[in-house]
Design goal:
4-stranded mixed β-sheet, mainly beta, about 150 residues, 3-stranded antiparallel β-sheet, 1 helix
Length: about 150
């Protein structure tokens, strides 16, 4: 990691896992998929992505638990407090080129505000979204939706 890049630290709830990212990020958006809903116990999760080489776990690798949540992705969480920390999505047999991190786990601001809603078709019926961000859905979760 370069000495000049801006670093933002993050952690789990109990502090057993500490990590950092170097800016710039790749994206920031709200995910409404049912896996995110169930994993976080929330209507949607605000994620940002960062290239693998801009991400590092500084403490707590021994308590990180990885769960293969689908045939193309995994989620990692703290084995002490249960905080959901990272998501890696890649095609079968290929290593992912970036890590997704919940924005709420960061100790400071990143370089992007949320830019979109993905898997919007799967959103919780009881949530009213009042922003003007693009809403993406369809089979891939990333296709433009109407309305």
């Amino acid at each position: 990691m370069s000495e000049q890049a801006e670093r933002v630290d993050g952690s789990c709830l109990c502090g057993a896992v500490e990590f950092h990212v170097e800016l710039p990020t790749l994206f920031c958006g709200h995910c409404h998929c049912t896996m995110c809903q169930r994993n976080h116990g929330a209507a949607y999760v605000t994620w940002f992505g960062v290239a693998n080489e801009q991400f590092a776990v500084d403490k707590g690798m021994e308590v990180l638990v990885r769960y293969e949540s689908s045939d193309h992705g995994s989620r990692s969480f703290c084995g002490n407090c249960g905080s959901s920390l990272f998501c890696v999505i890649g095609k079968a047999g290929q290593e992912a080129d970036h890590v997704d991190v919940p924005l709420v786990n960061m100790h400071g601001p990143i370089d992007k505000a949320p830019q979109f809603h993905i898997f919007y078709d799967d959103r919780a019926e009881w949530v009213a979204v009042g922003d003007e961000l693009p809403r993406l859905g369809g089979e891939s979760g990333n296709e433009p939706t109407e309305g």
